[in-house]
């Protein structure tokens, strides 16, 4: 049985907010495609809260050193909750659902050459896209964190991390003050449990709520099968013979992330939201619950436990 | 019905530049009911009657590049023996091949970026079907990309909601998970199905076998209850027995086919190893046992399939003995 703590929280962000797609075309720095629903990706929220958590728990940071979890041997809350990329352990950050109606704006900018104090040729003007609410100046986002088999200290540390993210900035162009968080609120902390029953289903229909990242080395079918096998292995079941069918709508979309270590953006392929997956084979029933919390994603990737591949069970199409 | 039928077909083609995904569908305004992922890069779209009406190709630029490199390597290999003798000529030829490769790659990229991005475009292409006993055994789509190149897609068969790839066997498919054999970029002048018209006599011959065997199976199945027929059924031990019951051309035709295979070995069109396999297949038909009688049409299907492959092998290796 899995014991899970669900922490629900709300953020109030002052516009403009830049949720970049990680792709630069010409001199226009694009934000998320306006055709899809606006959300704050789970990995962005994990970065925001994780950084605050690090400030609380990291001994190296207290002594003025650069935190490095690869060298550090201390088993802190950050390591177990955030740095751990394995399924079935630590914290799962879900996407931040934006409640307000947003519009996309392009902000023109110029770049000055510092030595000559003149506008740089060929790059001026350039544009940055960002989202602003249609009414008012504040964007309200709501999200959840699911913490698996955690002790009370870890939950408290995470709670402090969320509250400390007040007056921080989120998204792209943080150094310019974009995405300033005016307020954070924890709305609910409750405990839920998932039982690993042996009952199986011949077929499960899952509808994707968030994009499902596709690993280039496994393909669509391979990625879904491998992810499902990882999820069923949490209940000590060795899943075999899975067949995946895809129902309309079907669209492949790019998902991006910014690597803080390498200082460059990365783009990967993902199955778009609302895609319906029909999974055939003897699938344990608990997969339905797990897919809606853990998501169908591979282990040890940047998108693991960041709210990607979250799917809900659909009875009748 | 014609064994090989070729029709003009309109395809709706769209390329997503951001994700490097190519969406192709028949322009018939039909809705895709199910999609089946295949290998790493391909997703087949099926309508409600399980006919393939669309295909999505992931990482298309990489596949196109791989295809073009393979094409040029094949041409290069064919000329290699001559080039070894003349070093300077070889050097110039290599340079030319590489330049051509780059220009083709640029052309494909240009087509993707300018012609079919960001909105889908209707492109007139060709669809070719090959039938045996009114069953479709091969279906090929060809879509022109540039004035010189075309995209060729060999569709798998769909049987009981399962995709059956005809280009690789089941055991190989497990090993070759990243197989993209069904996607090809070919020069626009290449005849469809690789000069199969040359082999049409063999195909017709095989279709005749198949018809005969189907009828024979039908007769035996319908007369199962009659004791005398059952006795006859148990007595069938070889092709000679079948010939006696029904007619003689079957034996004669199989003999002709084995001679044809042997001639092809002598010509260097197929390898000795392959020829042995095909002859063994034919032998298995001639050594039919009563319980295997139902498997004969399938065996003939297999023989036909390999016969189709002969011509492909010929185009590749005829100039390279």
Topology at a glance:
The complex is a heterodimer of chains A (about 325) and B (about 325).
Chain A: E1 2-14, E2 20-25, E3 28-31, E4 39-40, H1 42-57, H2 59-62, H3 77-83, E5 90-93, E6 96-98, E7 102-109, E8 112-113, E9 118-119, E10 126-133, E11 138-148, H4 152-164, E12 180-194, E13 200-208, E14 212-213, H5 219-233, E15 243-247, E16 252-259, E17 264-271, E18 276-284, H6 286-293, E19 311-313
Helix pairs in contact in A: 1-4
Chain B: E1 4-16, E2 21-26, E3 34-38, E4 42-46, E5 52-58, H1 60-85, H2 87-115, E6 121-132, E7 135-144, E8 149-155, E9 157-159, E10 162-164, H3 170-175, E11 183-187, H4 200-222, H5 227-235, H6 239-245, H7 249-267, H8 272-286, H9 296-317
Antiparallel strand pairs in B: 1-2, 1-6, 2-5, 3-4, 4-5, 6-7, 7-8, 8-11, 9-10
CATH architecture of the largest domain in chain A: 2-Layer Sandwich
Mean pLDDT reading of chain A: 84
End-to-end distance of chain A, in Å?
A: 31 Å
Helix content of chain B: 40-55%
Low-confidence stretches of chain A: 22-28
Strand share of the residues of chain A? Answer: 35-45%
Categorize the overall geometry of chain A. globular
Report the strand count of chain A. Answer: 19
Low-confidence stretches of chain B: 194-198, 222-239, 241-248, 289-299, 304-321
Largest sheet of chain A: 6 strands, antiparallel
- Name of the CATH class of the largest domain in chain A: Alpha Beta
Whole-number count of domains of chain A: 2
Oligomerization state of this entry?
heterodimer
Number of domains of chain B: 2
């Amino acid at each position: 049985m899995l014991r899970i703590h669900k922490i629900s929280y709300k953020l109030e962000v002052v516009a403009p907010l830049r949720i970049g797609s990680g792709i630069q075309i010409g001199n226009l720095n694009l934000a998320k495609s306006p055709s899809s629903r606006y959300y704050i990706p789970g990995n962005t929220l994990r970065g925001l809260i994780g950084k605050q958590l690090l400030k609380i728990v990291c001994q190296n940071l207290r002594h003025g050193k650069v935190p490095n979890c690869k060298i550090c041997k201390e088993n802190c809350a950050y390591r177990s909750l955030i740095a751990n990329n394995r399924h079935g352990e630590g914290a799962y950050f879900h996407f931040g659902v934006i409640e307000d109606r947003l519009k996309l704006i392009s902000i023109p900018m110029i770049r000055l050459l510092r030595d000559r104090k003149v506008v740089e040729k060929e790059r001026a003007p350039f544009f940055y896209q960002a989202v602003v609410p249609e009414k008012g100046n504040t964007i309200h986002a709501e999200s959840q964190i699911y913490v698996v088999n955690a002790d009370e200290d870890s939950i408290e540390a995470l709670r402090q991390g969320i509250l400390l993210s007040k007056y921080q900035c989120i998204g792209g162009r943080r150094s310019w003050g974009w995405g300033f968080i005016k307020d954070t609120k924890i709305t609910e902390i409750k405990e839920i449990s998932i039982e690993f029953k042996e009952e199986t289903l011949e077929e499960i229909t899952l509808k994707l709520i968030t994009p499902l990242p596709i690993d280039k080395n496994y393909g669509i079918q391979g990625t879904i099968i491998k992810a499902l096998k990882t999820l069923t292995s949490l209940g000590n079941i060795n899943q075999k013979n899975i067949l995946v069918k895809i129902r309309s709508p079907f669209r492949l979309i790019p998902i991006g992330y910014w690597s803080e270590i390498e200082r460059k953006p990365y783009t990967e392929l993902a199955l778009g939201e609302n895609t319906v997956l029909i999974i055939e084979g003897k699938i344990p029933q608990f997969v339905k619950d797990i897919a809606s919390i853990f998501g169908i994603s591979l282990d040890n990737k940047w998108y693991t436990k960041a709210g990607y591949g979250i799917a809900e069970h659909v009875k009748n199409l | 019905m014609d064994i090989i039928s070729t029709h003009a077909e309109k395809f709706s083609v769209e390329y997503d530049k951001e994700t490097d995904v190519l969406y192709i569908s028949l322009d018939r305004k039909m809705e895709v009911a199910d999609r089946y992922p295949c290998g790493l890069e391909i997703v087949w779209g099926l309508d409600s009657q399980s006919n393939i009406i669309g295909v999505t190709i992931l990482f298309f630029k990489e596949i196109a590049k791989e295809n073009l490199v393979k094409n040029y390597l094949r041409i290069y290999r064919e000329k290699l023996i001559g080039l070894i003798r003349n070093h300077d000529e070889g050097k110039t030829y290599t340079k030319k091949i590489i330049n051509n490769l780059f220009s083709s790659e640029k052309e494909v990229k240009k087509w993707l970026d300018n012609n079919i991005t960001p909105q889908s475009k209707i492109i007139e292409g060709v669809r070719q079907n090959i039938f045996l006993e009114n069953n479709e055994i091969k279906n090929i789509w060809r879509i022109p990309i540039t004035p010189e190149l075309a995209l060729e897609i060999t569709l798998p068969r769909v049987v009981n909601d399962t995709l059956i790839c005809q280009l690789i066997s089941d055991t190989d498919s497990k090993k070759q998970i990243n197989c993209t054999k069904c996607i090809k970029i070919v020069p626009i002048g290449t005849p469809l199905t690789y000069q199969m018209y040359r082999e049409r006599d063999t195909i017709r011959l095989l279709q005749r076998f198949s018809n005969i065997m189907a009828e024979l199976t039908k007769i035996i199945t319908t007369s199962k209850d009659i004791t005398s027929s059952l006795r006859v059924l148990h007595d069938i031990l070889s092709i000679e027995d079948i010939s006696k019951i029904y007619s003689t051309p079957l034996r004669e035709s199989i003999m002709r086919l084995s001679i044809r295979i042997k001639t092809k070995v002598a010509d260097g069109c197929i390898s000795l190893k392959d020829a042995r396999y095909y002859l063994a297949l034919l032998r298995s038909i001639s050594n039919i046992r009563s319980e295997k009688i139902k498997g004969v049409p399938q065996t003939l299907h297999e023989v036909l399939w390999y016969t189709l492959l002969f011509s492909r092998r010929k185009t590749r290796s005829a100039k390279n003995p």
